[in-house]
Amino acid sequence: MNRAERAQMAMMLEVCAYPKPGNVDRCHDYPDTRLEHFLASAILAGPVFDAAEKTGGRVGSLIREAVLRTNDHAGGNTHFGAFILLIPLVLGGDIGGARRVVAGTDVEDAIDFYAAFGLTRVRMAESDDLDVNDPASTAAIRERGMTLADIMAYSAPRDMVAREWTNGFALTRRCADLLHSHGSGREAVGASFLDLLASVPDTFIAKKHGEAVAERTMQCAGEVLGGARDLRAFDAECVSAGINPGSIADITIAGIYVALGEGWQWDC
Amino acid sequence: MNRAERAQMAMMLEVCAYPKPGNVDRCHDYPDTRLEHFLASAILAGPVFDAAEKTGGRVGSLIREAVLRTNDHAGGNTHFGAFILLIPLVLGGDIGGARRVVAGTDVEDAIDFYAAFGLTRVRMAESDDLDVNDPASTAAIRERGMTLADIMAYSAPRDMVAREWTNGFALTRRCADLLHSHGSGREAVGASFLDLLASVPDTFIAKKHGEAVAERTMQCAGEVLGGARDLRAFDAECVSAGINPGSIADITIAGIYVALGEGWQWDC
Hints:
CitG (chains A, B); homodimer; Triphosphoribosyl-dephospho-CoA synthase (chains A, B); mainly alpha
């Protein structure tokens, strides 16, 4: 399996994993975002990963291209965060390579990234002054000379996907290690997801519902791991409240990509 | 969406459709063949469809290449029948083009196809004298000057996928018409599948369990349509007995491919 295929397989394996509290999985849809939207995104992003692997390219424009190709269905953004992690991983091959890609980004990457952002329905934090719908933001990025790595550093305190760019893909690494420790086979995906959910508050939940809900979700996941709470009941509660740990899902995808490259087997 | 993407999307949409009596779907796996195997096959076949669309190629070698790329997981053959239909459809664009592809096959296509067949676990009917594991079969194909279309005509009485090659993709056309008549959206896939299942005995079931079981399954599907039998209970009965209408699934994939090209929308 080449890098591009590993990226697509990671997207597919993550969304199929079940049970996975709060997120779309093979047994749960949200009304506007369904299993098929995630799988369509995994299929339609293929040529972008393929181009990244075979001919390289710039990380900002590749993220924009991936969003463009996967944004034409009614399910809205499904994988924006995953692309932010997967594109440098596919360009660089592994975490070490992805760090070099991140270190090499420039202002043009930042501009392309903002264009990609503007195509999605992802919300900015209210405190963000670089509004993607504001043409002045592009001018401000140029004026300040911000690279895409700078943009991610700017977002990192409030966004754990952006934080991966600043901390050397630390949670991605942890997720890959969890997959190895749980052993090969698809059950490891859900188990690793739950471990992550119990260890760090999901910033997607925090943006949507506030910090307290993200913290509470993390604690509940820990109770599931400790046996004090039922996994499927917790999943049902999260789904009915719209509490979906979307950023941990993105990091899980990146972790699966890395683990597949290190010999972890999805199919056994 | 280009042809290659339509082919992959058709494979994805078919396997996700639920409820779908007897087959793998988002809610049912078989012990050795699971949802992820089918979705992996849809992802990993992408480059073959892409090559077929962009640079053409020979139908026999493309089918062999698709099987090779998708055969390296433990789920066994998932889409051999689908490739037999999709490769000519992608090469030719639509049913008219696929008919021309079929008419243009030659002995080399037949030899490549037998090589593909030998890679799968698909069973031959006991009456078949062209055993794929017998090197003499290749010699016999050359000696008789059989094209791939001749091979399909030879198998057509016992195999409804092969029969599509001899009847101008009649059931594929019917499935696309059913999708249009059920309207856009994923629910149409399961509904069209059930309509087909109620109208023609599945030859995959017939090879595995005998003609009588295939006939009985068809009758039960009709009872579901007529309201005399519960769909989910019928699904559960089929799954527990291992009665999986795999050939009608293959034809449904081809029908989705055609319908997508004619404006049917999966996402609404």
